[in-house]
Amino acid sequence: MPYIYDYSTLTQNAYVDGVLDGSNSPRGPYKGTVGNMTIGTNRVFFPNNYWDGCLDQISYFSRVKNATEVLSDAKLTVAYSFNDTLLADGPLGINGTGINFAYTASGRISTGLNLLITVSYVKTDGLVLLGASARPYSISIWINPTVTTSGNIIHVAPTTMGISRSVPMLGFINTGNLGAQGCSPSESVSLTGPVVPTGTWTHVVITYGTSNGLRLWINGTQFSASSSAYNYTAPDVPVPVTLGASLSSAGSCSSDVITTGQYLGSLDEFQLYSRELSSTDIWNLANP
Predict the structure, then answer these.
(1) Three-state DSSP state, 58
(2) What is the Cα–Cα distance from 270 to 76, expressed in whole angstroms?
(3) 213, 182 Cβ separation under 8 angstroms
(4) What is the C-alpha separation between 60 and 102, in angstroms, rounded?
(5) Residue 173 belongs to domain spanning
(6) Residues 16 and 111 in one domain
(7) Is the pLDDT of residue 59 over 90?
(8) Which of 9, 211, 253, 275 is deepest in the core (most CB within 10 A)?
C-alpha cells in the first residue's frame, strides 16, 4: 500500500495492491528539516491510537516510483534470474534453495540454471497467496530441455511431500508435449501444449484468473485454455514451488496428464506473480 509524493507536481498518490486508489493535488511538501519516522502509531492522541494488525516489507525511497514499479512491488512475488545465485530479484526477497544444480553461461538472458541429473531441483518455500483458493496468479519461465520424456518443470504442493492441489504443475507428457495440470480429490483441470524442441529456448507462461480460468502461453501467444471460469481449491496454507522435479510421492495427479519425474535441461528467468498477466505483459516477457 504505497504512498507517493511527487514534489515536482505537488501530488499525493495512494496505491492499494499496486493500483492507484486516490490522488490529491496540489499539496504542499513537508517543510521540516529533520524528524523521526514512527511505525505503528503517531503523536496524535498518543498513546491511544496504536495500529492493531500485521505489517511487513516497509521501505522508504527518496525518489518517486512510477506506476510500473509500484505494480511490480505489489504483485511480483518471486523472481530468479539464476545469474550465479539463488538470491531473489523480486521485491519480497524470497530466496531459493536447491540441490545438484549448476549454472550455465548459456542462459536465455544471461546465466541460466542447469538440471542434468536425477534429483536436482530449486525450491521456494512459504508462498502464502499461491496457497489461497481462487487467487489470481501467473508463472513465467524459460525452458531448454535436453530430453522431453516425462518430467516436472514446476510443481506446487501444499506440503513438501504432499500431492499438488489444483494449482498446476507444468511438465512434459511422455510424447514430448508440454502439459499443465492441477488436481485435488474433488476437481481436476488439464491443459496440453505443443511438442517442445530440445536444444532451444521456449518461453512458457501459465496464468489463472476467475474469469479466464487456466491458460497456457507459449512464446508470447496463448496456446490452450481451460473452461472460461475455473475456481481452484488450494490448501489455504503457505505452499512451496519446486523447479525441475516433484518432491511429492505419486498421487492422484500422476494418473492424469503429467507423471512425476525429473526435468533435464536448462531453466532461466523464473517469475511468479500474484496477478493474472495481460497478453501485453506476456509478450514483453517472451521478447526481452
Answers:
(1) coil
(2) 11
(3) no
(4) 36
(5) 76-286
(6) no
(7) no
(8) 253
